[in-house]
User: What shape does this take?
Amino acid sequence: MPASKKKSGKKTPAKSQNRAQGKPGTGKKAATCKHPGGRPSKYNAEYHPKIAGLLGQLGRTDKEISAELGISEVTLNAWKKEHPEFLKSLKKGKDHIDDQVESSLLRRALGYSFTETKRYLRPLYASNGDPVIGPDGKQQKGAIREEVTEKSVVPDVTAQIFWLKNRRSDRWRDKHDVEQTGNFTLVFDKEDANL
Assistant: This one.
């Protein structure tokens, strides 16, 4: 190849400027130009926030919610960032079930009482004391008998510990950070040398 037609490794200023501006025929897009194409989003502003809120109320995790919606967890997280109404609905649904669990844990930690009602069908007996048998050959049932009992559930120590470790962690956590200031000296005996 003749020396006059040989290309140098350097780009001419005009070509570099064309590429930076994203001009056609340069083979590159400008860094600031966003491509209008691409796959359309599956997000539906009317449908997805409602479904996400309901799934959150059912106690579903993000992984389970993304599977129910037919998307990846990465897409779910992107939707949370891009669509504030989606994030708000999801949080509201999760908060609802979390509040119920918190309330139940508190009840269990403190103990509670409740009324239990059992209903039984009494068998029918004739005036002479014999059971009344129906056409199907079985003893007939008659009046309903109710048995009402007041029951108590004692406070649960495990629930109390869990509550206190989370709500009063400064006093109830397992690990305590102790800071030592000043100088101290360690003295080892000959017996400790084998350790």
About this structure: The mean pLDDT is 80. The first strand starts at residue 112 and ends at 123.
